[in-house]
Design a protein that fits this description.
Pfam families: PALP. This is Cysteine synthase A. Pathway: Amino-acid biosynthesis. Keywords: Amino-acid biosynthesis, Pyridoxal phosphate, Transferase, Transit peptide. One of its GO terms (molecular function) is transferase activity, transferring alkyl or aryl (other than methyl) groups. It is a single chain. By secondary structure, the protein is of the alpha/beta class. It has two domains: 10-41 and 162-323, Rossmann fold (3-Layer(aba) Sandwich), CATH 3.40.50; 46-146, 3-Layer(aba) Sandwich (Rossmann fold), CATH 3.40.50.1100. It has eleven helices and ten strands. Strands 1-2-10-7-8-9 form a six-stranded mixed beta sheet, with helices on both faces. The protein has a four-stranded parallel beta sheet with strand order 5-4-3-6, with helices on both faces. Helix 7 (186-198) links the parallel strand 7 (177-180) and strand 8. Helix 2 (47-60) crosses helix 6 (154-170). The radius of gyration is 19 Å and the shape is globular. The N and C termini lie far apart (44 Å). The structure holds 4'-deoxy-4'-aminopyridoxal-5'-phosphate (PMP).
Length: 337
């Protein structure tokens, strides 16, 4: 194994993450399931990639000027990536977050020097939704840009040019399936487009949590949601600009319980401490692997995204009291305290 090349710019630490074969999921699917270790980015999530591309794009278009401020609405991870990128390039950040996201993400944002604004969680149609609030703040500030990760396709370009190309190279040009859940859709659409450009037979699947509207949209053409999920950063109710033209072949709907089961197994059996969107992605990858095997592709290789670190959810997913309050199963090693 060759060591990663030495870097002269800290921003070059974003991307080029490891890909790892997941033993338990591969056994459950009957084929290879690979996880892209996005928790290995400097901000510990997949969103560092989008933050870097959005900032570089705004600079290239002359919108982001020296000493400027980047304003963004986010479930947290994009804000963390944005704060790091902005610090490295001499910009300021204002981050707007719904106040039901994990405390760890809010504390991290403050620690990184971002100005944090929290708003109550509301529907997208509400003018006080975190996305609209972030846009308003950007409009009212001098020398500021609105990053607009949901509808700014610089986001998915990070995954076409980065994540997809890396997965293709890391698997020596043989990938049969890819799946992940959607927040902005940048990862799913970008990796889907990038892999299809290499081989149009790669099967691209949406993995949707309960409470999101995309499963019904891709299955029946209707945006419709049922139930809910405690997973942070995923669960979309509309077709964002990043999702437009996404090459989706099939779709799976995954419950929090199924996702949590994989979070628990990956931690206890494989030593990976992950967030719930990663567990939901792995459950989707197992479903996609099984589908490919049933179609006679016993040697299938499926890739998915391990989106962020579980250390970001110590007060939620890894807290017995919180799990109990959400009526979710408590990991047995957390005990009864
Ligand atoms: N998982 C987590 C933990 C996230 O924060 C996000 C981003 N909101 C995603 C998954 C989804 O990524 P994307 O925005 O590219 O759809």
């Amino acid at each position: 194994m060759t060591a990663p090349a030495a870097r002269t710019d800290t921003l070059d630490l974003i991307g080029n993450t490891p890909l790892v074969l997941l033993a338990g999921p591969s056994e459950a699917a009957g084929c290879e399931i690979w996880g892209k270790c996005e928790f290995a980015n400097p901000g510990a999530s997949v969103k560092d990639r989008a933050a870097l591309y959005i900032v570089r794009d705004a600079e290239a278009r002359g919108e982001l000027k020296p000493g400027g401020t980047v304003v963004e609405g986010t479930a947290g991870n994009t804000g963390i990536g944005m704060a790091l990128v902005a610090n490295a390039l001499g910009y300021k950040t204002v981050i707007v977050m719904p106040d039901n996201q994990s405390r760890e993400k809010m504390d991290t944002l403050r620690a990184l020097g971002a100005e944090l604004v929290t708003v109550p969680p509301t529907k997208f149609a509400d003018p006080n939704h975190f996305v609209h609030t972030s846009r308003r703040i950007a409009d009212e500030m001098d020398n500021a840009i609105w990053a607009n990760q949901f509808d700014n396709v610089a986001n998915r370009r990070a995954h076409i040019e980065g994540t997809a190309r890396e997965i293709w190279q890391q698997l020596d040009g043989r990938v049969d399936g890819f799946t992940c859940a959607v927040g902005t859709g940048g990862t799913l659409a970008g990796v889907g487009m990038g892999l299809k450009a290499e081989d149009e037979n790669v099967r691209i699947a949406l993995t949707d949590p309960h409470g999101a509207a995309l499963y019904d949209y891709f299955a029946h053409g209707e945006l419709k949601s049922e139930g809910n999920s405690v997973a942070e950063g995923i669960g979309q109710g509309r077709i964002t600009a990043n999702l437009e033209g996404a090459p989706i072949d099939t779709q799976f709907r995954i419950s929090d319980e199924e996702g949590l089961e994989w979070v628990a197994r990956l931690l206890r059996e494989e030593g990976l401490c992950l967030g719930l969107s990663s567990g939901i992605n792995v459950a989707g990858a197992v479903a996609l692997g099984r589908q490919l095997v049933a179609d006679g592709r016993e040697d299938a290789r499926v890739a998915t995204i391990l989106c962020d670190t579980g250390f970001r959810y110590l007060s939620t997913l890894y807290n017995a009291e919180w799990l109990r309050a959400k009526k979710l199963p408590v990991f047995d090693w957390l005990g009864s305290s």
